[in-house]
Write a structure and sequence with these properties.
- The protein is mainly alpha-helical.
- The strands form two sheets. Strands 1-2-3 form a three-stranded mixed sheet.
- 49% of the residues are buried.
Length: 582
């Protein structure tokens, strides 16, 4: 018997679901509501992390941890305290798979994110950043906002592509809210989380980003951006100069990503138990933080401080090395968070060092330090996170200077190109690569993973024992009845594919074993292989049919190249229609 609630709300919910599936305006309205929620969640998480730092480090409500002149060494015990908390997280979650983040969800799972994964990532990131580890909060912002969109979208039974768009829009809205920069948030959604600029996604993504930014501004959350006055006019030669800065930032980004991976691998192979790894990492962070607090947290305050005060190149070089070291130790030993905000800080230092070195060259045209810092900030973030237009919009919204933004685009594209050519991954997709995935962006390849041999095989393939003679084969399978027959051995294991036409050739004796003409004995598919692997094997073996077997080589079914290619083409066409909103 139906409950009164289902009788009352069931028809309303069903009508809402139909409206969302049929109307683009309804999806935009949903993005508006969820974008506002993303802004509120960003504010809440930022306040929680800052409150932890105020309590643990005794800083003022308007102060930033990384902008302090010094930190009481006793208070640095907050780092191992946070490490212990994360160790407990790791211990109790040791048997679970790694949480699905928004990029992985959109690339492989059609936007589906388990609630527990979103809460886990957010909690671990807040603990890491709140304790002072050198990680940013962007992972928590994007994850919780995208996770909310995923839960609501699945509850409303949105189409796969609409769900991906909604998850990307809200993840971008969360990041844009932190910066107070809706354009940055929108392009973050397109480039980082959705993986493509699609006509169907423009309105929902823009709406969510604007809603989040307006919500945050109306409630008074201070933005990450530092608005700087326009500098000297940009000359044509500056484009070449800043392109070189982009290439330098690309190399720095690759070094950082490689170093994090090497550190993670070394820690994983070490005898340090999972429970103690963040604690050990925290102990290593303490002497670095004693040198300068600028290495703590994401570096918001330090970025503002170093760009508004005249500091020496030696000091900047020291901070550059120590911040990279602190980020590598933090992520390598198990603190949770992202490199987005940290890469902005390191990039600003890279730009200032670049400008300082150029200005030391006799006869060289002077380079504006603030301009170089902003462009370095964008280029290094592109190298680590990806999204050249995302970071260029960040420069535009920070300076309102279109000429400077043009040079930022140039530097970002140079950085992006060099990273793709020599490294091939952003930080998020590189970490997935180290876990065995092959994705290079958030573009939807989940349908490829779902299009497996087990789902496409025909289960009623005719079989015959390989020891049977040609007379029996010809009697059971007359010419024209079937195209191929699968040979099996006495135990039922796969033993090859026999073409019926070949079995009727005159050179074969009536009593000869039919298994002698079986082909592809060593070529078979497993049911979990996806369409890419299937098509690759068809091309390598120049086959028209392939058998699907289990681990014991027992025959499960047969797939044909013709059918596989037709299904692949259908999915490609479907993806194209979704891309353009048809």
């Amino acid at each position: 018997m139906s409950s009164p609630r289902s009788i009352l709300f069931g028809p309303l919910l069903a009508g809402l679901r139909r409206q969302l599936r049929a109307s683009e305006a309804a999806l935009i309205a949903l993005a508006l509501v969820l974008g506002s929620c993303a802004g509120l969640m960003t504010m809440a998480q930022a306040e929680i992390a800052h409150a932890m730092q105020r309590i643990l480090y005794g800083i003022g409500s308007d102060d930033r941890l990384s902008a302090q002149n010094g930190v009481d060494p006793i208070r640095l015990l907050a780092l191992p305290l946070g490490g212990l908390a994360l160790g407990v997280f790791a211990y109790y979650g040791r048997r679970r798979r790694a949480p699905i983040d928004v990029v992985e969800a959109n690339a492989l799972h059609g936007g589906a994110i388990p609630v527990r994964d979103s809460l886990t990532v957010s909690a671990q990131t807040l603990v890491s950043n709140g304790a002072g580890a050198s990680v940013g909060l962007e992972a928590a912002y994007a994850q919780l906002a995208g996770g909310l969109a995923s839960v609501v979208g699945q509850w409303l039974r949105l189409r796969r592509n609409d769900l991906r768009i909604l998850v990307g829009a809200c993840a971008g809205a969360g990041v844009g809210a932190a910066f107070g920069a809706p354009l940055t948030g929108a392009f973050y959604a397109f480039e980082i989380v959705i993986g493509a600029y699609t006509p169907a996604a423009i309105a929902p993504v823009a709406t969510a980003a604007l809603a989040a930014a307006v919500t945050v501004r109306s409630l008074g959350l201070p933005a990450y951006l530092i608005v700087l006055p326009s500098a000297a006019p940009i000359a044509s030669s500056d484009y070449f100069l800043y392109a070189a800065l982009g290439l330098v930032c690309a190399l720095v980004g690759i070094v950082i990503m490689r170093a994090v991976t090497i550190a993670e691998s070394a820690v994983r192979r070490s005898p340090i138990p999972d429970l103690a790894r963040p604690f050990v990492g925290a102990l290593l962070l303490i002497p670095i933080a004693l040198i300068t607090p600028q290495v703590l947290s994401a570096g918001h305050g330090a970025l503002h401080l170093d760009m508004t005060m005249k500091v020496s190149l030696g000091f900047l070089a020291t901070i550059f090395v120590l911040k990279i070291l602190a980020s590598v130790v933090s992520l390598g030993f198990g603190f949770r968070g992202g490199l987005f905000f940290a890469s902005l800080f390191i990039g600003s230092i890279t730009g200032q060092l670049f400008a300082g070195l150029i200005n030391m060259i006799p006869g060289a045209s002077p380079v504006n330090t603030n301009d170089a810092a902003l462009i370095g900030m964008a280029a290094l973030a592109v190298a680590v996170v990806g999204g050249p237009l995302t970071m260029s919009m960040l420069v535009l919204e920070a300076t309102h200077d279109f000429a400077l933004t043009g040079t930022a685009v140039t530097a970002s594209l140079c950085a992006s190109t060099l990273v793709r050519e020599t490294f091939g991954f952003s930080f998020s997709t590189w970490r997935l690569h180290t876990r065995g995935e092959t994705i290079r962006s958030a573009r939807d390849v989940g349908w490829v993973k779902n299009l497996t041999a087990g789902r496409m095989m025909r289960r009623d393939a005719p079989t015959i024992e390989e020891s049977a003679n040609f007379a029996e084969f010809r009697r059971r399978f007359p010419l024209g009845s079937v195209r191929v027959v699968i040979a099996v051995d006495a135990t039922g294991a796969y033993a090859g594919i026999i073409r019926v036409s070949s079995a009727f050739a005159e050179q074969h004796g009536e009593e000869d074993p039919v298994g002698s003409i079986a082909q592809l004995k060593d070529a078979a598919l497993t049911p979990d292989q996806d369409v890419s692997a299937i098509m690759r094997l068809f091309e390598e073996r120049e086959a028209d049919e392939l058998a699907v077997v289990d681990e014991a080589r027992t025959l499960l079914g047969v797939v044909t190249e013709k059918y596989v290619r037709r299904r692949y083409t259908q999915e490609i066409e479907k993806a194209q229609r979704e891309l353009f909103g048809d």
